[in-house]
Design a protein that fits this description.
This protein is about 35% helix and about 15% strand. It is an alpha/beta fold and about 400 residues long.
């Protein structure tokens, strides 16, 4: 029988499991690909129960941007197949036609198309909806105050249900669609999202919050913030640390270092140079998040950080691991374009070897575009994600010590 929300959140109901989901636009379908073998393996352990969902296993699911979309859907009890179906429709519908130049005059895509795409899943549900079956955390950036927002459905949270006289709009009454759109409002891609955040004594709105993508903070990879949610007393979760008490699966959307030719960069308008700098910042915070989480743990399959420190295998700066942590991701490698037909073919990339076939240079380049919603690219991202997920997931991961009690009893 699925756990209640109280059982998921209570610190007194055993070991806890966290699922962390990065941002990355349409590349969220790659995340779903990695989650497919994970869901299959956990369902197998659950006795091949067709009703099993990841929200039955994970006690807290948190995400940023596209990760917030996935986190919300999974917390409501959707299967990975149902989320994949949503993304296969969302990609072409939302990112199929541009509305502006995306830099100077108008955002590249229309937020109302994304809202329509999410209606079938989120409807008018709020953060306090009883339909949410596990802990949920959504990350956004409030640009008018400069604060990074992490909104959760924990009933003891300070802002979940504040006193009426405070004038603060309770977190539990925010619509999931508004929160997800706020988390996904990537600058240049979508306009900022405005949400009423304070009211007078007659419940008339007196202050609005202006939100942009949670990636415009340190939380595009939300794993470190989710770790703090679990352990920092102010957040009220009160979970226990330790590799036997706390585990986290952290899923990326495919990684590629954002390089640019120096001379070409100098020739760009300031707006485009700012976009490149923002992408570089997001990449740096993602990698730093992985590095810190690996420094607190001892991953079974550590992720390579850089050429200086390698993959940190066996490194745990806290002495004893604070949690069982595993990063699941894949490098979206590229290869040089052929200048002449007679040029020898470059060696296969690791990604191509994983798939078992060669891909042309243009196709490989397109995999890392957050707005490449073309059907062929979406299908390839899904294939890459499934192949990558299978390299992490088996009978030993997730670690069986975090299996649900009823699985061990059966």
């Amino acid at each position: 029988m699925p756990k209640t929300l109280f059982e998921h959140l209570s610190p007194d109901t055993g070991a806890k499991r966290i699922l962390s989901l990065d941002g990355g636009g349409v590349k969220g379908v790659l995340t779903l690909g990695m989650l497919k073998p994970l869901e299959d393996e956990l369902r197998r352990r659950a006795g091949d129960d067709p009703a099993f969902r990841l929200c039955d296993y994970y006690d807290l699911i948190g995400g940023t941007s596209t990760g917030a979309i996935i986190a919300s859907g999974l917390s409501l009890g959707l299967s990975i197949d149902e989320m994949i179906e949503l993304y296969m429709k969302l990609g072409p519908d939302v990112f199929g036609k541009t509305a502006g130049d995306g830099v100077f005059l108008q955002s590249k895509f229309e937020s109302k198309k994304l809202r329509r795409a999410l209606q079938s899943v989120l409807s008018t549900k709020t953060l306090g909806s009883q339909d949410i079956r596990t802990g949920l955390a959504i990350h956004a950036k409030r640009i008018d105050t400069g604060s990074a927002w992490v909104v959760t459905n924990h009933p003891l949270g300070v802002f979940y249900d504040p006193p009426a006289e405070s004038g603060i709009f309770p977190n539990k009454r925010y619509r999931l669609a508004d929160l997800v759109l706020a988390s996904a409002a990537a600058p240049t891609f979508f306009d900022e999202i405005t949400i009423d955040v304070e009211f007078d004594e007659k419940r008339r709105p007196i202050q609005k919050g202006f939100f942009v993508d949670g990636a415009v903070s340190a939380n595009n990879n939300p794993s470190l913030q989710l770790f703090m949610l679990a352990l920092e007393p102010s957040y009220k979760f009160g979970w226990k640390s330790g590799a036997d008490n706390l585990m986290m699966t952290s899923c990326g959307t495919g990684m590629r270092r954002p390089t640019v030719d120096g001379k070409a960069f100098q020739g760009l308008p300031p707006g485009l140079r700012g976009v490149h700098a923002l992408r570089a910042m997001v990449y740096d915070t993602q990698v730093q998040g992985v590095m810190l989480m690996q420094a607190f743990s001892n991953p079974r399959k550590p992720w390579r950080i850089n050429s200086e420190i390698g993959d940190m295998n066996g490194v745990c700066i806290t002495g004893e691991p604070l949690l069982d942590y595993q990063r699941m991701d894949v490098m979206l490698e590229v290869k040089p374009r052929a200048k002449k037909r007679s040029d020898p073919a470059p060696p296969m990339t690791q990604l191509e070897r994983m798939l078992g076939r060669e891909l042309d240079a243009i196709t490989l380049e397109g995999l890392d575009l957050m707005d490449n919603g073309k059907k062929a690219n979406m299908e390839l991202l899904l294939e890459v994600g499934i192949a990558a997920g299978k390299t992490y997931v088996d009978a030993t991961y997730p670690d069986p010590r975090f299996d649900l009690a009823e699985w061990r009893a059966s």
